[in-house]
From TrEMBL:
One of its GO terms (molecular function) is transmembrane signaling receptor activity. Residues 1-22 form the signal peptide. Transmembrane segments: none annotated. It comes from the Eukaryota. InterPro entries: CD300_family_receptors, Ig-like_dom_sf, Ig-like_fold, Ig_sub. Residues 23-124, 133-232 form the Immunoglobulin domain. It is found in: Membrane. SMART domains: IG. Coiled coil: none annotated. This is Immunoglobulin domain-containing protein.
């Protein structure tokens, strides 16, 4: 009876450890690269990297090699003696917005019950850590998402235009998410840090200017990150104006200048040699 009881406890603890693992969120900048380290309790020979679930076309890489790359996806397995646990480094190169989502990395043949890890990827236009104030350029009609990273958490979360004065606050909340019209914020509390994700959709030229994401703290000084954006209108193809050459050729059909036999011969000779560009030029002159 005691033996069965002990086995039950061991199985229960193992399931609890697996289910208690939280899904980490990682932020990558559009156009850049990102690497996520997957640490495991035991080693394995088959390394696997997937999107969503490790089934069918969702499998990005499945290999026995310590290093592999398929397209923009890469894996590298590290098992040096200096490391306590083996690590599978998974990377995505040249990030795009469509790369955002959930991923899995794992050791398919590992005896450990924790042989797979999940992580969430968020692709942003810029990641601010306070070292500089970026100036971003966007087309009208597009959207902009910025991740503001802080060393500490805050009681209130704000997204402002300008310096967060009385009439400059776009969104303010003490919740995890909030939105107001085209503006939204999403807050993530980490172990020793926090990330405030701010978004503006359907950008217009009037959105050009300076912005701030801010954490309002009750006791210590507030934390903030600034950035600037310039929004440019996209040219409308329907307003295209024909060039002077096009206008002239369309209105000069009645004009027929005399062409020397030498010029005509040159055109025919060029056409015979297959120099289509010169031949076209000569025909254009004849049309005028």
């Amino acid at each position: 009876m005691k033996v069965h009881h002990s086995l039950f406890c061991l199985i229960f603890v193992s399931l609890q450890v697996r289910s208690s693992r939280s899904v980490e969120t990682h932020y990558g900048v559009s156009g850049g690269n990102i690497t996520f380290p997957c640490s495991f309790l035991s080693s394995g020979k088959i390394k696997i990297f997937c999107r969503e679930t490790c089934e069918g076309e969702n499998i990005l890489i499945r290999t026995r090699d310590d290093a592999a790359q398929i397209g923009r996806y890469r894996t590298e397995y590290e098992r040096e003696a200096s490391r306590t646990f083996p690590v599978l480094q998974v990377s995505i190169l040249e990030l795009t917005r469509s790369d955002a989502g959930r991923y899995q990395c794992g050791l398919e043949d590992s005896p450990s019950s924790d042989s797979f890890l999940d992580f969430r990827l968020v692709v942003v236009d810029a990641l601010l850590d306070g070292n500089k104030v970026p100036h971003l350029h966007r087309d009208a009609g597009s959207s902009l998402t910025i991740a503001c990273s802080f060393e500490d958490s805050g009681r209130k979360r704000l997204f402002c235009r300008g310096g967060c004065g009385k009439d400059e606050v776009l969104v303010q909340t003490d919740a995890v998410r909030a939105d107001r019209g085209r503006y939204s914020i999403e807050y993530e509390k980490r172990r020793n840090a926090a990330v405030l994700l701010v978004t503006i959709t359907q950008l217009t030229q009037s959105d050009s200017g300076r912005y701030r994401c801010k954490l309002d703290r009750a006791i210590r000084s507030d934390l903030d990150r600034d950035f600037s954006i310039t929004v440019t209108d996209v040219p409308d193809p329907s307003t295209f104006t024909p060039t002077a050459t096009q206008s002239f050729s369309s209105t000069s059909e009645s004009f027929s200048p005399a062409v020397s036999s030498e010029t005509s011969s040159l055109c025919q000779k060029s056409a015979f040699k297959g120099q289509w560009l010169i031949s076209f030029h000569c025909n254009f002159i004849l049309m005028i």
